[in-house]
Amino acid sequence: MMTTIRMQPTDSGSDSERQIVELVVKRYDSRKDALVQILREVQAETHWLSRKVLHLVAAAVGLTPARVEGVASFYHFFHLQPVGRYHFLWSDNVIDRMLGSRMLARELCRLLHIVPGKPRQAAPASLDFTSCTGLGDQGPAVLLNQHQVLTRLDELRVVEIAELVHARVPIEEWPGEWQRVDDQLRRPDVLLASPAAQGEALRATLARGAEATLDEIVISRLRGRGGAGFSTATKWRACLHSPCPAHGGRVVVCNADEGEPGTFKDRVLLTRQADAVFEGMTVAARVIGATEGLVYLRGEYRYMLETLQSVLEQRRRDQLLGRQILGVDGFNFDLDIHVGAGAYVCGEESALIESLEGKRGTPRIRPPFPVERGYLDRPTVVNNVETFCAVTRIAQRGGAWWSAIGTAQSSGTKIHSVSGDCARPGIYEYPFGVSIAQILEDCGANSGAHHAQAVQVGGPSGLCLATDEFERCIGFEDVPTAGAFMVFDETRDMFETARGFAHFFAHESCGFCTPCRVGTELVVRRMDKLAKGHGSIFDETELRELESLLHGTTHCGLGATATNPLRDTLARFRPAYEQRLKSPTFTPGFDLDAELAAARRVTGRDDADAHLVWQE
Amino acid sequence: MNYFTLDGLEVPFEEGDTLMSAARREGHYVPHLCWHPRLGQSGACRVCTVKVNGRLAAACTTRASADQMVENRTTELDAKRRLLLQMLFVEGNHFCPGCEKSGDCLLQATAYEMGMTGPRFEEFYPDRPLDASHPDTWIDFDRCILCKLCVRASTEIDHKNVFAIGGHGIDTHLVVDSPSGKLVDSRFSADDFAAGVCPVGAILPKRRGFVIPIHERRFDRAPVAEESWLENDASTRESTDDTGGHDEGA
What we know:
The structure holds 2 protein chains of 2 kinds.
Chain A: H1 14-27, H2 35-46, H3 51-61, H4 65-72, E1 86-91, H5 94-98, H6 101-112, E2 125-130, E3 142-144, E4 148-150, H7 155-166, E5 185-187, H8 200-208, H9 210-220, H10 232-240, E6 250-256, H11 265-272, H12 274-288, E7 290-297, H13 305-317, E8 334-339, H14 349-356, E9 380-384, H15 385-397, H16 399-403, E10 413-420, E11 426-431, H17 436-442, E12 452-457, E13 463-466, E14 484-489, H18 494-508, H19 514-531, H20 537-553, H21 557-561, H22 564-572, H23 574-581, H24 592-595, H25 597-603
Parallel strand pairs in A: 1-2, 5-11, 6-7, 6-9, 7-8, 10-14
Antiparallel strand pairs in A: 1-3, 3-4, 10-11, 12-13, 12-14
Helix pairs in contact in A: 1-2, 1-3, 3-4, 6-7, 8-12, 8-15, 9-10, 9-12, 12-15, 18-19, 18-22, 19-20
Chain B: E1 2-6, E2 9-13, H1 19-25, E3 49-52, E4 55-58, E5 69-71, H2 75-91, H3 106-113, E6 137-139, H4 149-157, E7 163-166, E8 173-176, E9 203-205, H5 218-221, H6 229-232
Parallel strand pairs in B: 1-5
Antiparallel strand pairs in B: 1-2, 3-4, 3-5, 6-9, 7-8
């Protein structure tokens, strides 16, 4: 197998690397479509993915090395350069920053003599920043070796971490308390207050029949909880009516790639209601006639994997999963958990499928839609974690019951991940139709020290609302949301919030299409220019033009919503910009002095005469 | 025969056509960079963005249907295309006066057609080493616009998978499949379809830079919007390799 690849001379480490690769690849039957999983598990052993390791993997699964490198370099959690044995990924959402995360990162770097994003040869630790890790209600949060999480960091904890690193204490021996993740369940309603699903929904589905169960979903008027709000019944029916290819039947996929900054409700659902999620998937399987399911668990939630697998094991023992579910002949359905590797764009359902197939997470051209040709070209239903939870309860209690909750266009409840400037961050489940003001009151955003000036609903790709809009209501007809609810009090600079989100989108752009790849970078450069005090009235014109271009010309929704925070804050928080846009004189984005850095380095000079003075 | 309208003109189409393939077969010009009649769809450059019944969409990935009113060469759309082109010009290093592809370059010709007169945005000046390792062909990554035509050509037509895409965001880049990462160690040959498909000056034959003098080149003869498509394309049919957006090389 190795003869097709010309290898560099092997060194002493190569034998063990070869063994690791062989072992992992064997675990996945040399499947090309398991490439992301294979790379994840290889890296867990080798710490980083050297060119040699990538070539070994390529040869073992029968892909070209360039293809494997292309996949490995797409995901944030794969390291193509060596990193420390302790690799800290600092959650860099605006909420973590408001809790002092940046200062703590600086402090840890100082103690460990490292520089963020620049791993040092032979240093035991390295540190970089990553997008929101889904722990905003108990941040500042850190991901350790893409596996463990550290919550509620403070200055003392950072000092203790540095000591453990210096002493080379294995992570398994670090205090368990540091890794504690709380549910912070503040307001449960029908989804979160229900007892664990133990087959009731499956029995009801079997009693009713598949067709009648789909009718109940129609009656419930359930819409997808991932953000787009597409009718669940319509999606299932389209999948049911799509012909299957010869190589496989329909597939049920659960989107647990909860990447929208400020969203963590799926983490809590998977902690408290994993049975309901899996049961909802099984109901879907019965309705559309699928025998295989996949859960796409975001890489940041890797720490939950073993627990979730034990839930699956228990369900298999209870005849709720596997062959002959509940003893019914022909009712076969089982599911696997696929762990992501750090890519926000994979929350888009066709990118998620690409990733499940072991490819770069680039959104597909649609049509064909996943319900027609999804995972491995098989008709595939992709639904959000919360949607499957709702399915379970609807199957159990009927569509009319669910439909009676909520509003005319938005039935049922919606779970909100509340974080930011409030006394009681955490998880709140409300029927649709609740006002922003009500949620703010319940979470203590207008009490004591806090006075909310803005709420980012649905994350950066959602809406930013100001005080005069707090009477607006959650629902597809007014303020839709995928579940994030970030509160900003009057001390916060909303320009900085928008700038943070601009960096987020540029960081997460898949790079496929021109407007998103280059446009998000141009937005970042302009926002940074404003932040440095070099803004002028011309920059606003350009930002607006970029905003207009990105809405409509991009390949997928990531690019189309990337400038939402810019649009919303420009409209609602103009004073935050005006200060920075007041200069009527054009100042170039190109920094001539910075460009001279190489010349200064070469000449060994850094005196005043070697610098250009900025003319105000 | 079914028709859609393109800037008021009726365009016939067949089942499975995209707006782009149908328009091109009829000799209409829809600005584009990453589309090629012999290769599968991509949708990466977005220069073919049109308005379909009032909504923006890429002509190369939108299926033709009978009720479509398509706007193409409007002032508004050409302005958007100009911005996209200006993005591509600053993202890489494009010095037209010193480029052997000048006059044959689809990026340059399309920029002229869209009325682009300057870079507008600040140049990124990326640092991208070139690959001159191959005896017959060299790659100037400075000029790569990530259209993936070479990736698709090498996969779909040459069946060699010489090229792939790596990285993400603004660090997205072309990867050469070989042990050293250099073209000379790959399965690439100057006879490959992928060797001649680059719309810009990124993949070029050696020692032929000025065989055809400036002023006698493809877009010197006729502006991009007016050249005869049938003459330039061996076939106006889309590739039958229906890999959609998830081709092997992606």
